[in-house]
Amino acid sequence: MDEARLIYLVSDATGETAEKIVNAVLLQFPEKVVRLRRISHVRDKNSIFNCLDDALKDQALIVYTMVNRELAQLVNDECEALGIPHLDLITPLLSKASEFFGRSPRQTPGLLHHMDEEYFRRIEAVEFTVKHDDGQELRHLPYADIVLVGVSRTSKTPLSTYLAHRGWKVANVPLIRGMEPPAELMQVDPRRVAGLYIDPQRLVELRATRLRHLGQDARAAYANLEEIEEEIRAAKNFFRRNGWVMIDVSGKAVEESANEALVKLKLK
Question: Domains in the chain, please, with CATH?
């Protein structure tokens, strides 16, 4: 078996970009034994000198992603002087992009990693929201950024999902007539709770459609106008008693309701 060869991945950020590219290349050399050594957050000359000294001893290949032009040039010059094989993954592309856009790059390390963090934050928010839809996992309500409360068919789930895709951990809790609200809901910071309500006539239409889809009688109490008017009235009184902001979702796109919720909750 061939002796393992080393590739140093040197970056002024996390080095994840270099690692992904190098791993993609190594797939084309399955017979070779290669070890990767990732050296992250290299942002001063001494760190570069120490790294290159080690690479020289290990007879390694240097693959680097340095957005700081001065440091990238230093790596290049030192590798040339020491005879270390090296490849700059970022500078040629930055130069071409600068020509194309007619401006200099920001030279700020870690921007891609920050974008990745934002992406995973949104994924986490979506996962949380799915698990806490329609009153599930009530013990976790204190961990929600936003808690939406409302009677059935007041857009709690669509609104929760929309907010989750923008990075907010959302739980929603239904109000069911004749049943006490869950005790866990009353322990949530009222500044994070929004009560949803809707025009009663519109709610009749939504519930009647729901019942028909389920093959049930659309004239049931669930879709009765008088029953719904009382249900909405009781819900709004409940919201006021608890000091929660209220959102009228009647005839609104989910984006509009979401924006109103964020503004009223002082999250935007």
Answer: 5-109 (3.40.50), 119-264 (3.40.50)
